[in-house]
Amino acid sequence: MYLNENKDGNKVVLKLVGRLDTESSPDFEKRAKGISSDIKKLTVDMEEVEYVSSAGLRTLLAAQKAMEKKGGKMVVANPGEVVKEVFDITGFNEVLNIDYGE
Question: What is the DSSP string of 14-46?
Fold first, then answer.
């Protein structure tokens, strides 16, 4: 997985490319949890994510909870069809703040 971070004021966009799985989840989790408390919105751009595993889902949920604990918000943006299907099947579409870009 490739991860790119772009900060703009009190907003951060983490763009993920590749797979969010057991191997790559620790890197994402470390980066997401390391976001400073002055950041009020974290956007996780998943447009180029081709696969997300249960470990990836867990880290997304942990990142969302960490942002909420800091008084911020996390949004998952632009998930592709495969990732949308995983969110739907697992019920994460009801748990995560998702912007489908429609």
Answer: EEEEEEESTTTHHHHHHHHHTS-TT--EEEEEE
